[in-house]
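Fill in residues.
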């Protein structure tokens, strides 16, 4: 797909980009190359390819799901101006 200078100007306007007039043809060539690559990749038959989350067969290292800190609610709530039933009270912001 080949982009014209007018199409590049319109894309630049929509993206709120300022490009110099002498660079428009370079942008047109580069963007056209990108669109040609996308069209080429779109033509590849991927029906028999299994989707994968990672190109290598690796698994995520996970930490053990254990409590590592003690409950300090009372200590943290000492600085709060308003508390009720162990919860912070905040001003109403939505009517």
């Amino acid at each position: 797909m080949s982009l014209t200078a007018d199409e590049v100007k319109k894309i630049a306007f929509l993206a709120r980009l300022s490009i110099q007039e002498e660079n428009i043809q370079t942008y047109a060539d580069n963007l056209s190359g990108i669109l040609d690559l996308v069209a080429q990749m779109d033509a590849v038959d991927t029906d028999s390819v299994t989707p994968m989350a990672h190109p290598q067969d690796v698994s995520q290292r996970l930490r053990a799901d254990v409590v590592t800190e003690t409950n300090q609610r009372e200590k943290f709530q000492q600085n709060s101006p308003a508390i009720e039933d162990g919860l912070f009270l905040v001003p109403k912001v939505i009517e």
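The longest helix spans residues 24-42.
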